Give the backbone structure.
Amino acid sequence: MKAVALLSSGIDSPVAIYLMLRKGMEVTPVHFRQSSKKESKVLELCEVLGRYGRLNEPVIVDAYEEQAPVFSKLAGIGKAKWTCLFCKWTMVRKACRIGHRTGARAIITGDSLGQVASQTLDNLLIISTASDLPILRPLIGLDKEEIVGIAKNIGTFGISIQPEEPCPFVPRYPVVRGSPGEFRKIKRQLMNWGVL
């Protein structure tokens, strides 16, 4: 079975991909490029992950082209705290579109419940609305120590912890428990302005 997977340069998403490769899935990674350093780490991670199953060439998406206009408009209307939620929502939406093009049956993410703003149950519910493909979250019940342990065992940890630039879009106070109603309202505004 084919799937697309969101792949960052961090610790979690490579582990999620590894777990699904181990299940026999054919995976196409999708990376949102923010910097050349992060992209080169992702290419290294793909080399390691390719040892564990059928991993296709990564699809690289320019975050500045795909997402920055959305974030800029959010800031302009005083809704910058929703940036992380819209970041993940736009990632999942793009992955879904790539999935339909490639014949994928699911999307894989490295979400682990409650770790950061985009991974609270309320926010995961909103993010899931971006896709009509099922979203597989193999790390959902693991804690950070368990994820790190797997990353070390499979050889991705050393790559993931290499220094890199922080995300330039993270707001000071991200929404932790987003309201689906407010999200839909903001989304409609963004769509009317043509940035979504």
Notes: The longest helix spans residues 83-102. The first strand starts at residue 2 and ends at 6. DSSP finds nine helices and five strands in the chain. The CA atoms of residues 11 and 160 lie 5 Å apart.
